[in-house]
């Protein structure tokens, strides 16, 4: 079976994890965590960056730091993972789902303003497949209505919008380093912070409500409980695993892009014949080859497509069931406006295997199987 995903591995991970153990520093904010923080800030130009236990907890921190509370509303796409909406629900706020664009599967910026009410406090922009939302109109809408912008850039590490790194454009950006992502620490994530005034607040929130971070920097002579917080710190062993990949971030990115481009060229004939719809990359976006997907005619054809690839030893998967149709979505949120594309486009989408150092013969096998499906 050709797997859908293989977690990235460079060869240095185990040595770095052993180094963390040998240093007797395996809890949060050790030497490897600090290396990762510095790399993220320097590479992406983020004033603040903090590793978290997951992309989910990064989103939770972002919603809390945005001041969301019961009775507030947040506009977000329904075509996203549950974590995006759960982070809103945990604050007591209501997710207001809005329709997506069929070309990028991202939040349709032209539909956002109509969903704004006097309760709206934030917009959550999810960069699907590492392809940026059209952020300038979103930022303009947010500025005119006094709203926070939270970027769910879980899939967007190394992607850019008009030269700006995803995760650094809104008030807060959230990365994921889950094993399915381009760079992994098993479970993990990062919160990027635009306003320097929010950095210390984020540190307190992340460090169980204490000012331990300023104490460790020598800014106070003792630390104490000062505010609400939780434990959002990953182990330094996880950070050590991640550091091995951040050191090779460009190589991993180029390797994935090579596979993505190979797929894209190989399926252009099927797209020209009207058999498939291929991903769209807007001119002002640079993506990170987080995934390669194709769109079939409808749900029935997609089901047959995935089944056929499985019979050929290839694991292809569909993606999100729109949140507004899920039990929790019906309970906690609401969809604003017409569902023109969210459900219909999600029913057509199938993801193909793509991972770092994917063997070319496996890529060729996937390409051949996809063509054979349509020949039949």
Write structural notes for this entry:
The strands form 3 sheets. Strands 1-9-8-5-4-2-3-12 form an 8-stranded mixed sheet, sandwiched between helices. The model has no long low-confidence stretch (mean pLDDT 97). It is globular, with a radius of gyration of 21 Å. The longest helix has 18 residues, at 249-266. A hairpin with a 2-residue loop joins strand 6 (160-161) and strand 7 (164-165). The chain has 2 domains: 13-246, 3-Layer(aba) Sandwich (Aspartate Aminotransferase, domain 2); 249-375, Aspartate Aminotransferase, domain 1 (Alpha-Beta Complex), CATH 3.90.1150. The chain has helices spanning 13-22, 31-44, 55-65, 82-89, 109-112, 135-145, 199-206, 212-216, 236-246, 249-266, 268-272, 299-311, 327-332, 342-346, 360-375, and strands at residues 48-52, 73-77, 94-98, 120-126, 148-152, 160-161, 164-165, 172-176, 189-193, 285-286, 292-295, 334-335, 349-352. It has 376 residues and is α/β, with parallel strands linked by helices. It is built from 15 helices and 13 strands.
Detail the topology: elements first, then pairings.
Blueprint: H1 13-22, H2 31-44, E1 48-52, H3 55-65, E2 73-77, H4 82-89, E3 94-98, H5 109-112, E4 120-126, H6 135-145, E5 148-152, E6 160-161, E7 164-165, E8 172-176, E9 189-193, H7 199-206, H8 212-216, H9 236-246, H10 249-266, H11 268-272, E10 285-286, E11 292-295, H12 299-311, H13 327-332, E12 334-335, H14 342-346, E13 349-352, H15 360-375
Parallel strand pairs: 2-3, 2-4, 3-12, 4-5, 5-8
Antiparallel strand pairs: 1-9, 6-7, 6-10, 8-9, 11-13
Helix pairs in contact: 1-9, 2-9, 3-4
